[in-house]
Every structure is written in C-alpha cells, then in structure tokens.
Design brief:
This protein is α/β, with parallel strands linked by helices. It has helices at residues 42-53, 98-109, 124-134, 153-156, 160-176, 186-195, 239-246, 264-275, 294-299, 315-322, 336-343, 352-363, 367-386, 393-398, and strands at residues 12-14, 17-19, 25-31, 58-65, 82-85, 88-93, 112-113, 115-119, 139-140, 143-146, 180-183, 201-203, 225-230, 253-258, 281-285, 303-306, 327-330, 344-347. It contains 14 helices and 18 strands.
Length: 404
C-alpha cells in the first residue's frame, strides 16, 4: 500500500498571524536505481549528491525502484513507502504492483512541479513521467533529461538499430515539451546536440561527494602488477577486451574483477576468457563492490584497467584517482587530460594488442616506479578536485529563466 504523504508545505502560524515561507522550487526526480542499492554504479551516487547538495530553496521528490540492479527481491521494508532523506522525499516503487502506481500518481498529480528531472533517455522510469507530462497526467513547468552517457557513440553502437528507431519517434515527444538536457561534460553535450540539435544543454559536473584529498600511498611493495577492474559486467564497460589483452601478457599479473553481472551472455563470454588465461595471469571475480569499500580496494592495487566504450563522467575513474590508483583507460571519457598529466595512461586504440603492450609496460615497472605512478595519480586527483566548481544542477535550473 502507498502511505499517505503530504507533498506540499503548509503555512506556519506565528501567534495570530500566519506567515508563508517562500515558494520552494519543486522538483520531481526519477531514477531507476538508488540507495540503499549501489550496483548501478556512478549514477546512483550522482543522484544522491544532487539530492544532498541542493539548496534549501529546492524541494526534491525522488521516485525509484524498490530493488537494486539485477535483484529479484525488494529492499526490506521499503517497497511502496516514502522515506525522508534530509529535505528530500524518496518513494520506492514496485513495477508489478498497480495499486502502488495508482496511489503514487494520485499524490503526484496534486502537485504542480517546477521541474521534472529524469535520469536516462529511454528507461521506463523516464518514459512514463515524460509521457505523463506530455498528456497532462502530471504537471511540470519544465522537463530535463540526464542521459548519463546514453548519447555517446559507444552506447549507441549497442543495439543500435533498436535505439535509433526509438529515437525517431521519441524526438518528437521531447521537442514538443521543449525538453532540456543535463550533460556532465562538454563532450557529452556535443553528443546530445548531435542527436537533438534544437535542445538546450546545461553542462554541470555535479559529481562530487568525493574526498578533497587522495588516500596516502603505501610504501613500495614487491610482487606482480596488481590490476583491478570495477564496473558493471556489460559490453559498455568492455571487460572482455582487458581479458583478451591479458591472455597475451607474458609477465606475472594479478587482476581482481568487481561489479554486478548486468548481461549474463556477456559474462559467459568473460568466463570463457578467464578460464583461458595463461598461468602467469591470475584473475579473480569478487562480486559487487560496496561503496564503503571502494577507496580501500583502489588503495590496494597498482592500476585500474578500464577499456570502456564511453563514459559521460566516469565516477569510477575519480574514485580510482582518489585512491591514488592510476587508471589505464580508453580515450572515450572526459578524463583524458587528467590521465595524461599523471593520472595514468590513455589508449586510443581498443585492440587486445595495444592493451597487452601497455599492461606489459606497467608490469615491467619496479616497485619504486609503481609507487611513483601512484603518487602522481594522487597529485592528478588533487589538482582536479581543487578546480572542480560545485553548482547543483537543480539550483542551476532554478536560477535560469527557462528553456531557450
């Protein structure tokens, strides 16, 4: 059952006079996954930071699923419930319970929202509320989409025919609402404009919640190169390429793999590659990684290996650098300048041969050289973090005049 919930503030009574607080900027946010889940990776932490860092003038409501990525069971005691999170309210929705949908809709339709902010271009949790606004079932003055990298060439290359066919019709709906987009970087903004040239794109990193200083680097230690992969087990993150590269490496290497299995067929391919690795490479799948353990894991490794097909931001890269752990990465992220200035290495070529050669180079480093590389990664993070301007996207929209 949906719990009754008051979504609009009441006037405060002061003696005989009733004073009304300034009208808040009411925002309805939707995100397929949210805390206490963490398997969906960076977007969960990004949305959490948006909620936590918004100014007191913003009144956010978040609607999310009642379970984590890949989970068959709901979070204990949360399905169909409202939960307070600071000034924000969060509703945990079960997709298979029509009474929850109906009860939630009755509450939301009574509110005139200033902004509908959806996380994903085509997830059901985005399509339903956007269509609700389009056909008058929800009331919102403005609509903003945070595509979270879905407009990149790498993302569009996966199931490309289906996605492009969908966008042909969806583009008309978005334009009829004068939808704006939230991009994390100039690179992502260019991807969005390539698909929707008529739209307003607001660029705002809004991805912090990260420490100001990197973790201290431990003393040099002997032993083989210790690599780590952290990310969803799906084609977009490209773990298979890293495993193919390792099959050609001749020096001793350790690899720990962390991440939820999002694509079972892709994981079967990775399992076959793991089984075929040579004896000098020892790789272990360690399951999902809790956010509280992320920095400790990076602090225990020499480098993150990430041949990703594309990242709109790349939260895991920031976390790796915060752990003073260099990053071996493709050039399809906004981190290329930071990595080339001491944060690790950038590989434009997504081939097993190129990645094997780079891993061989790192494996040949002495313990002292690896230590120096970790110190440089921490310094690169420190400089990036110091230059990061923090303006919450919801406050940025609140202070603007509206779609142009």
């Amino acid at each position: 059952m949906v719990q009754e919930n008051r979504l609009t503030p009441r006037p405060r009574q002061n003696g005989r006079q009733i004073t009304t607080e300034p009208k808040p900027f009411r925002v309805l946010i939707t995100s397929t996954f949210f805390e206490p889940g963490y398997r969906a990776g960076g977007p969960v932490r990004s949305v959490a930071h948006i909620l936590d860092a918004a100014s007191p003038e913003v009144a956010p409501i978040l609607v999310t699923r009642d379970r984590d990525l890949g989970a068959t069971e709901a979070y204990p005691g949360l399905s169909g419930r409202w939960v307070d999170r600071g000034r924000a309210r969060v509703f945990y929705l079960s997709w298979r319970r029509p009474r929850q949908w109906y009860g939630l809709w009755r509450q939301l339709r009574a509110v005139r929202f200033d902004l509908l902010y959806v996380n994903s271009l085509w997830a059901p949790m985005s399509l339903v509320p956007i269509l609700g606004v389009r056909f008058g079932l929800l009331r919102s003055g403005r609509v903003m989409v945070a595509p979270r990298g879905e407009c990149s060439a790498g993302a569009l290359s996966l199931k490309s025919s289906r996605k492009r066919l969908f966008i042909t019709g969806w583009r008309w709906v978005l334009r009829s609402l004068a939808v704006e987009f939230h991009a994390s970087t100039e690179r992502e903004a260019a991807d969005v404009r390539g698909m929707f040239p008529w739209t307003t794109v607001r660029i705002n990193a809004n991805q912090t919640g990260l420490p100001l200083e990197p973790v201290p680097v431990p003393a040099p230690a002997p032993g083989p190169l210790r690599l780590v992969f952290v990310g969803r087990i799906a084609a977009m993150k490209n773990l298979a390429l890293a495993l193919e590269a390792l099959s050609a490496v001749r020096q001793p290497v350790l690899l720990d793999v962390y991440g939820p299995i999002e694509d079972a067929a892709y994981w079967r391919r990775c399992e076959a590659l793991l089984a075929a690795l040579p004896s000098n490479v020892r790789a272990t799948y360690r399951g999902s990684l809790a956010p509280s353990a992320v920095l400790d894991v990076f602090a225990d490794h020499d480098a993150l290996v990430l041949p990703t097909l594309g990242e709109n931001f790349g939260h895991v890269i920031a976390e790796s650098l915060a752990g003073s752990c260099p990053v071996l990465c493709s050039d399809r992220t906004p981190w290329t300048p930071v990595l080339r200035n001491g944060g690790g290495a950038v590989l434009p070529e997504l081939t097993a041969g190129a990645w094997a050669a780079e891993i061989e180079r790192w494996a040949a480093l002495t313990p002292e050289q690896r230590h120096a590389a970790r110190v440089a990664a921490g310094d690169a993070y420190r400089h990036w973090r110091a230059d990061l301007a923090e303006v919450n996207i919801l406050d940025l929209v609140r202070g603007s005049a509206g779609p142009r």
